[in-house]
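FORM 7B: Structural annotation worksheet

SECTION A. Query
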Amino acid sequence: MAERKGADAREQDVLEYWKKNRIFERSVEERPEENQFIFYDGPPFATGTPHYGHLVGGTMKDVVPRYWTMRGKRVERVWGWDCHGLPIENLIEKDLDLGSRDKIRAFGIDQFNESCRARVLEYVDEWERVVPRMGRWVDMEHCYRTMDPQFMESVWWGFKQLWEKNALYEGYRPIHICPRCATTLSSSEAGSNYSDITDTSVTVRFKVNGEADTFILAWTTTPWTLPGNMLLAVGASVPYVKVKQRHEFLILAKDRLESVMDGEYEVIEELTAADLIGKTYEPLFPYFADRPGAFRVVAADFVTTDEGTGVVHIAPGFGEDDFYVGQAEQLDIIRHVNIDGTFTAEVKDFAGEQAKPSDHKILEHLAGRGLVYMTKPLRHSYPLCWRCDTPLLNYTTNSWYVRVADIRDRLLANNKQTTWVPSNMKDGRFGNWLEGARDWAVSRQRYWGTPLPIWRAEDGEMLVIGSIKELETLSGKKVTDLHKHLVDEIVIEKEGKTFTRIPEVLDCWFESGSMPYARLHYPFENQEKFEAGLPADFIAEGQDQTRAWFYYLMVMSTWLFDKPAFTNVIVNGIVVAEDGKKMSKRLKNYPDPMEVVERYGADALRMYLMSSPVVNAENLRFKESGVKEVSNKFVGTLNNVLSFYQLFVHAIPEIVQPEELHPLDRWILAQLQQTRVRVTSYMDAYELAPAARELQDFVTELSQWYVRRSRDRFKDEASDDYRVASRVLYRVLEMLSRMIAPFAPFLAEHVYRSIADRPEEDSVHLALWPMDDDLDFMDEEILGIMKTVRDLVTRVLDQRTEAKIPVRQILHSAVVRSSEALPEACLEIIRDEVNVESITWEEGELGVTLDTVLTPELKQAGIVRELQRQGNSLRKDAGLQRDDVITLYWESDNKDVIATFETFEQEIATRVNAKEIVRGLANAKQTTEVKIGEGVTLIGL
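SECTION B. Predicted structure
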């Protein structure tokens, strides 16, 4: 790979190398087919561009497969596109100004669907640019799409399997609808987007029949449901009162008097629920006044005195409690609102108007008739549409359901077989959702989706179709596309009956839950492959998917195969802006991801994300400074170590024997082994953040302790010390490149191919993960010894700080004490690190004694060291190489500096590789000031 400067350019080189040599494809092909690691990748919509949330998930989905590939597994990664549902339909409605179902029908369902098909993959090119640039390996060329006939056919197969298992039924019951989208939603969709909104709560007077000036007070937060009122419900054990206020009598719960009553009143009578049950009252509106059995007081066990008046208004067409009370009282279920949220024609005063936005009109109408007792603003959490943010309505309608409550115990049992990161998700957020799992509404009154494969005759008989071939056989027509506008035209004639398809399409989450088998066109193809790969070894998504994709995968897998859908799952949190707010293109409160990659490289961004709490289901405040820090401390540091290696080591060193190793060598190899064990353990447990942090910490140790303390060992290429240190550093970099490969694939490749002259096709990503037998040497004892060494160094440096003597000023001696004797080489490390002429070890409690007396000779030695440091810094700034010879110029009015130059001129020249040292700066092209004592000292090149 050609060398360029800068992370972005270097990573572009690696991308070209991977593509040219088919490294990704070979990483799959060269692993045995019988040793599969199955990974499910939740398909995104291509109706928008990738954001940081996608990058977090995408990186997790790259790190784990890369790791298991290096463990010898065959990890196939095929991309998929989510194509159906409200996300694309909403876009087309806006594009074509089709704000209602009537407008869509007038436009033509066929044209609407074809518009969706044309637009759904609008941003594919952007995804195909960003995903590879982030270093993610996935086969996007052979992707599956949920709108393809093969995928949809498998979805039909799954639906028919549920039908044959009696897992499906058509029910008339309350369900959330989005009035703007004019469709039903599942409980998970309805629960996924709550927001605090302000509504008007109202206490309404209901006039009691046969009792002069007597009213029952009932409270509601949904005034739009009042035209559909059929009953009033009281609590069987709740005490009630009749009070007199001015000229009228009011009935409400005794415990709610102080909260509800406005002004003075007198308690006339205490009542029980039994006294109220059976009383009738005048309808608030005349629209349904002739309904038999309505407009009376009944008992309901959900009535409490926690809020309101202790009397609940019942509109059986809206709300679960209301519906079941209406059923129990054998009432007709009245719906005075259409599925698009408009009032029906029966509601003559408001017909055609949107119901919820008409709350104020309802209240004005009732207030004009003296039926409003009190109104108050109410701030509460309310469900909004997950796609368009329209307030939802709880609405009784027909829908097709998958029986989920029936398999709740099996779902919980299958969940016991899974491992979650973080672990509390398993029995917490996900387990709790399973325990409360309700039947799943899977039909949608929409257009762009997989049609329900149900054909129904006039007498109610139904045919459920499970394949294209079955539909062709029954209809006698060739079928090439399964979308609504095409299959709706197919009529089946059978046994004298005409069967036409019911109009609904499937919830797009049904497709997502079918993804494991539908992506393979199972059971029509790949039967053995799919069955051998269930459950999946790994999936990963955001925590919102505990009530969505994870859940629907588990429901479908449990019903169809009686197995969990997956065994290991990582749940990520949300990436928010640095100020803690949601990332917003309008507010521009976050940097463009690809600009961050251009500045710091994908590896830095990957490592920043993977070592953060976001991979443990916590939120991350994205800070570009954090990426920069990883770029400097991890990527930059390792590149500096690599540069050091390339500068001093010119061929792969020969293997050395354990007895030849310096304590520093033994220590770094032990650190490497310890890091390998820890990272392997974390990766096996799918704990990415601690694994990433271990690798970052090791790179810091490698650079700041091993390489820095070993620099002098690399100067004499003829020495044994050089040979040993070179071999150790090569071994460390080679193993480290494999260990960082899942997290920082570009940097890993760069290091792996730079430390040796490898064949063109030899990639780190084709290598195996380092295991126990990969180490030349291991010595755990040295870890304790080196910890003692570094603790002693810290204590000496602390004493220097207290004495206000800088480290560059050499001192005469130090005594160090520890319980165990230290090797001579370790004492030499301490001596050099703390800059003393001699070091002595004594047995005892850990401690140090530093001789801080400064003699003239020591002062001069300190000046020599400082001049060396500043001179080499000048060389580096000038871009000089190690072998480049210079002339060092100097000038000073400090007598100690002058004396030092006179006495140690040759030593200074040797230390900065100068052919001569000249006093005076006239010919110097580059100068710097050296802070030494009083006066001014300048040196230059």
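SECTION C. Observations
The chain has 31 helices and 33 strands. The first strand starts at residue 78 and ends at 81.

SECTION D. Sign-off
Analyst initials: ____
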